[in-house]
Specification:
This protein is of the alpha/beta class. Helices cover 42% and strands 18% of the residues. The protein contains eleven helices and ten strands. It starts with a strand and ends in a 16-residue tail after the last helix. The protein binds 5'-O-[(R)-(carboxyoxy)(hydroxy)phosphoryl]adenosine and zinc ion. The site of 5'-O-[(R)-(carboxyoxy)(hydroxy)phosphoryl]adenosine (KG4) has 20 residues, from α5 and α6.
Length: 332
C-alpha cells in the first residue's frame, strides 16, 4: 500500500510517501528562522507558515511518488493550530481522491520510524521516545501495542536541551546547538545532578537539572556567586549538561530493556538525533547484550515518513477515520 503521511504537529511541514516500508520520499520544511527571534516555537506563526507551505510540499511529494492508496495524518498530540492545518489538508486530499484517511498518534509514530530500518526491530522491545514535548519509555510486546513504563514528571529531555541552550545564549533549536557547543567542551567539567537515575521506576525529571544549570551559569545568589560563574566556558557547560541528560536517558532505557527481558531497544524522537546519546546508549546496550535500533537522524526528528508507517499499521488493522476526525493537543 502506498501511503501519504502528513505531519504539521509543531514547526516542521512534512509530507512523505511510504510503500510497504519502502521510503519513496520524505520532505521536511523547517521554520527555524521564523521562531528563532522568540527563542521557541510560536504556535500562531507556525500555523500560518504551515498554511503557506503545505500545498507546495504536497505537490512536490506527489510529483516524486505518483498515485496513492491512503492518507495518514498526525492528529495528536501537538499544537492545535499547526495540527489543524495538516488535518485539513489530509481530509481535503483524501476526500477529493476518495482515499481512506487515518489519524496517527505522533508519539507512537516516533516508535514506528524504526520499522524503516533494515533490519527492523522485531517486538518485543523497549522504546525510548525523547522529543521536545515528551520523554517516554514504552514496552512494545507486539507491533502497535505500547505499554507505558514511565515518562517525565516535569520537563521533556528536548525541552531541557532547549532551555539550557537559551541559558547559554545558544541558538534555537537548542538540542543541535548544545550538541555543537559540547564538541569543544569537557563533559566532566561540572558534575550536574542525574535526577531519578537510580530510582526504582522508569520516570524521568529534568527541571532540576535545568535549574542547576541556571544557578551555575548565573549564580544562585549574587552575594555568594558560584565559582563557575564567568569562569566555565559555554562549551564546558554544554558538554557537562548534555552528559547528564544522556547519562540518565541511556541508563534508564537499557535498564528498562533488562527489566522487561527485552533483548532489543529502540530510540526515537528529536533527542535521539543526539550523537552522544546514540554513542553512550550503544555502549551500554552492548555491554548488557541488548541490540540497539536507532533510525537515521532525519527519521528521529519530526518527519512524515513515520506517520505514513504508523498509518499503514492502523489501516492494516482495519482502522480508518471519518471526516469528523479532530485534533487533540494531548496524547490519550
Ligand atoms: O521529535 P522532535 O523533532 O519534535 C517533537 O515532537 O517535539 O523533537 C524536537 C526536540 C527539540 O527539543 C530539539 O532541541 C531536540 O529534539 N533535538 C535534539 C537534537 N536535535 C533535536 N536534542 C539533542 N541533540 C540533538 N542533536
Ligand atoms: Zn516529534
Amino acid at each position: 500500500m502506498k501511503i501519504l503521511g502528513i505531519d504539521t504537529s509543531c514547526d516542521e511541514t512534512s509530507v512523505a510517501v511510504v510503500d510497504d516500508h519502502k521510503l519513496l520520499c520524505n520532505l521536511v520544511v523547517g521554520q527555524q528562522s521564523l521562531h528563532e527571534p522568540y527563542g521557541g516555537v510560536v504556535p500562531e506563526i507556525a500555523a500560518r507558515a504551515h498554511v503557506e507551505r503545505i500545498v507546495p510540499v504536497l505537490d512536490d511529494a506527489l510529483t516524486q511518488a505518483g498515485p496513492l492508496d491512503a492518507v495518514a495524518v498526525t492528529n495528536r498530540p501537538g499544537l492545535v493550530g499547526p495540527l489543524l492545518v495538516g488535518l485539513s489538508a489530509a481530509k481535503a486530499f483524501a476526500f477529493a481522491r476518495d482515499l481512506p484517511l487515518v489519524g496517527v498518534n505522533h508519539i507512537e509514530a516516533h516508535v514506528s520510524a524504526s520499522y524503516l530500518l533494515d533490519p527492523a526491530p522485531e517486538p518485543p522491545f523497549v522504546a525510548l521516545i525523547a522529543s521536545g514535548g515528551h520523554t517516554l519509555l514504552f514496552f512494545v510486546p507486539e507491533r502497535g501495542v505500547y505499554e507505558r513504563l514511565g515518562g517525565t514528571i516535569d520537563d521533556a529531555a528536548g525541552e531541557c536541551f532547549d532551555k539550557i541552550a537559551a541559558l547559554l545564549g545558544l541558538s534555537y533549536p537548542g538540542g543541535p546547538s548544545v550538541e555543537r557547543a559540547a564538541r569543544d567542551g569537557d563533559p566532566k567539567a561540572i558534575r550536574f545532578p542525574r535526577p531519578l537515575k537510580k530510582d526504582d521506576h522508569f520516570d524521568f525529571s529534568f527541571s532540576g537539572l535545568k535549574t542547576s544549570v541556571l544557578y551555575k551559569v548565573k549564580g544562585q545568589d549574587k552575594r555568594r556567586a558560584d565559582e563557575t560563574v564567568g569562569v566555565t566556558s559555554v562549551a564546558d557547560f554544554a558538554a557537562s549538561a548534555q552528559e547528564a541528560i544522556v547519562d540518565v536517558l541511556s541508563y534508564k532505557a537499557v535498564r528498562a530493556s533488562q527489566a522487561m527481558g527485552a533483548s532489543r531497544l529502540v530510540l526515537g524522537g528529536g533527542v535521539a538525533a543526539n550523537t552522544r546519546l546514540r554513542e553512550v546508549t550503544a555502549e551500554r546496550a552492548a555491554a548488557k547484550g541488548v541490540t540497539l535500533f536507532v533510525p537515521p537522524q532525519s527519521l528521529c526528528t519530526d518527519n512524515a515518513a513515520m506517520i505514513a508507517v504508523r498509518g499503514g499499521e492502523l489501516l492494516a488493522a482495519g482502522i480508518r477515520d471519518g471526516w469528523d476526525l479532530d485534533v487533540d493537543r494531548y496524547t490519550r
